[in-house]
Amino acid sequence: MGLRTLTTDMLEIGRTLRENDDPLLAEVAGATFAVLDGLVDGSVGEAFLQEIVPRLETTATGDALAVLLAVGSVASGPVGATANAAAGRLAAAGVSRPGWAQELTAPLVAGDFQRRYDDEGAAVFLSCTVERAGRRHAFLVCVDPSACGEADDILVLPAEDLPLILKEITAEARKDKVGLRTETLDAEEFRWQVENALNARAVHDGELPFDGDGYGDDGEAGEAASFLQLFGEEDEIPFGEEDGQDGPPYEAVALVLRSRLATLPTPRRPPAPHPDGDGDEDEVIDVLGGMAELVRMLDERGVNPAELLAGLTGNPRGRRGLSAAGWALAPPLPKKPKRAKGQRAPVYQVKVGLRGAKPPIWRRLEVPANTSLERLHTILQAAFDWDDSHLHAFETPYGRFGTPDADLDQRAEQPVSLEQVLPTLKAKIRYTYDFGDDWEHEILLEKILEPDPSVRYPRCTGGRRAAPPEDCGGIWGYEALLEILGDPSHPEHDERLEWLGLGSAADLDPTAFDPQGVTAALSRLR
Q1: Residue 414 CB neighbours (<10 A)
Q2: pLDDT attached to residue 266
Q3: Which alpha helices (DSSP H) does 208-267 contain, by range?
Q4: 362 - beta bridge partners?
Q5: By the 8 A CB rule, do 411 and 401 touch?
Q6: Percent share of the chain, pLDDT over 70
Q7: Residue-wise DSSP of 408-477
Q8: Does the model's pTM come out above 0.70?
Q9: DSSP class of residue 505?
Q10: For residue 513, what pLDDT is reported?
Q11: Among 108, 37, 29, which Cα is nearest to 68's?
Q12: Is the dihedral of CA 468, 471, 474, 480 positive or negative?
């Protein structure tokens, strides 16, 4: 694994950055590069300065410019200066800057500082919102009081999703008979509490200590500890294979959060005391070794740095926490169209087919384009006669939506409209109901119609075959069920009839379909 290959992968990430319009993505990518090579503390090897940056600049492409801007947005010292200088030369030479470049320089305005906690000291949640150039995102820091108050996880998400996430947290706590209190903090106190949590996590992770009292001369948080120290333990790999993490590390998301904290007033009281880490300084890799040393060490450990960095361009499921890359790396969600007061939204004609069904099972529906995904879920339940007794999710090019769930990288569906995720004709999304039976519905936008004042929407205008019964084992289980019901001599025939509550197999007609009946069911929806 050499510097040339690593440069190629950085350019690939640059392409992803260039195709998105959210500067937060660039910051997370830049922070990942920073913690991967200890860039932030300025102790950078000559390899990066003399080889990587020139290789990027020589390509004279928008991808290279995007990467350089991303690294320069978070890296201080010689790397930040070199990356920004190279980016400036490319821009002066006529290379187009990504759309987010200007927004990246806009001021950050943080607010909505809150702390949620329980009286028993079992959990603490610190949250805030940040606005830049009209775009709002939020941070939620999950603190573990039993571990010296360390930051156990950091979630970054669109600001409109934060209330729903907090509601879910409160509801889950209530199920465990734990009451959460909410406290509003001022900006200085919020910064103090969050930085204490981040610093405690840094000590526990065995990172390099923060200098001084934790605050730099310019008011920013002390230097971020080097991610390279994670290689100090012989058997340790920085991105745990055990939990399948291949996105940006916690340290990268923490670094972006620290940049937001740096805009807040510097705390007047010193950081909370914490015992020093017990790591052996001899085991810490000298960050002066730079990128070349990192590549060598990764190779020795059997870790491919290109694959590690390329993880930025994916959105793996099952990753713990809703990290920045979890939502930002997907294409940005289109904005909702603006309409004049009283102007009705167009009507979407969509064909919804149950994947894997042979013969096909489908419905043709007409729904207002501004229907929320939450409402669409209810419509689909009625159209297919489901019971809404299981979890569901919408898979779209812009991310996964449903009930907010950090473990599934799932964002709130309520604020998102159908026209945002199906912006053009022939666009498709997927709706999955019941993660056990895994009923997958493909939703295709067939036509965009003018609304008819005489029609009540939503309505069903076509379709084929009855939907399967709930909990029958998915599409393959349904096929097996029909086979059993069609064979009176089958040993499970009577048992299945009893389970379905049917007196005869003739009572279940898989060919039956009544669009008027579906429309009537839709009309009863509130």
Answers
A1: 17
A2: 92
A3: 250-261
A4: 353, 464
A5: yes
A6: 75
A7: GTEEESTT-BHHHH--STT-EEEEEE-TTTTEEEEEEEEEEEPPPTT-PSSEEEEEESPPPPTTS-HHHH
A8: no
A9: G
A10: 92
A11: 29
A12: negative
Please work out, in degrees rounded to the nearest 5, the angle formed at the alpha carbon of residue 403 by the alpha carbons of 406 and 456.
Answer: 155
Q: For residue 258, what are the contacts with CB-CB under 8 A and spacing of at least 6?
A: 195, 198, 220, 221, 224
Q: Residue 165 corresponds to which amino acid? A: I
**One-letter amino acid identity for 333?**
L
Tokens standing for 117? 């906690």
Quote the tokens at residue 10.
């950085």
Which amino acid appears at position 202 of this protein? A
- The alpha carbon of 510 is separated from its chain's Cα centroid by a whole number of angstroms, namely 39
Q: What residues contact 9, with CB distance under 8 A and at least 6 apart?
A: 305, 306, 309, 310
Task: Tell me the β-bridge partners of 440.
Answer: 432
Let me know if 55 is exposed, middle or buried by CB neighbors in 10 A (0-12, 13-18, 19+): middle
- Measured from the Cβ of residue 373, the count of other Cβ atoms closer than 10 Å reads 24
- Looking at residue 492, its pLDDT comes to 87
Residues near 203 by beta carbon (within 8 Å), at least 6 away in sequence: 148, 150, 209, 274, 275, 276, 277
Residues of the chain short of pLDDT 50, as ranges, are 1, 38-45, 207-247, 276-329
| Residue that has been written with the tokens 């689909």 in this structure | 380
What 3-state DSSP class applies to 159? helix
CA distance 165 to 326: 15
* Residue-level pLDDT at 254: 87
Per-residue tokens: 412? 């709130």
Cβ 376 vs Cβ 418: under 8 Å: yes
Please tell me whether residue 116 adopts helix, strand or coil conformation: strand
CA triple 468-474-476, angle to 5 deg: 95
Token pair recorded at residue 122: 């079992």
CA 196 to chain centre: 25
Question: Would you state the pLDDT for residue 46?
Answer: 56
